[in-house]
Specification:
The protein is an alpha+beta fold. 25% of the residues lie in helices and 38% in strands. A hairpin with a 3-residue loop joins strand 3 and strand 4.
Amino acid sequence: MGPGVLQQQFEWPIRVYYEDTDAAGIVYHANYLRFMERARTEWLRALGFEQDALREHYQVVFVITRSDVRYLRAARFNEELRVTSRLERLRRASIEFDQRIDDAAGSAVCSARNAVACVDTNSFRPCRIPVHMMRIFEGAR
């Protein structure tokens, strides 16, 4: 495994609510991305970073720059799901995640490779991930 490649994995449970579904009672396709966003937010929280504090103390936010999604089967109302997020690559100003949503039996529902960039809150231009955060991300290997 080369530099910048991590194997940390984080799991977050999701319950499908009525508001997550379309008229057919299945999860609306864009909501899988919302579920993955929640899991990345909870991963940051588990490492001790609240997004509002990142904005206030470091003047940075993370934004999606790329998402390659594979829809494998429909999830339905009231189903229990688990989002798994694994850091695939850590760079100075970006992170790539492999994310997967499984049902309660462990069968894949959706998978994605998502890239996020660290951006300055004033300019909204890419910037380096703060050193303190990088140390924690690297230490989570």
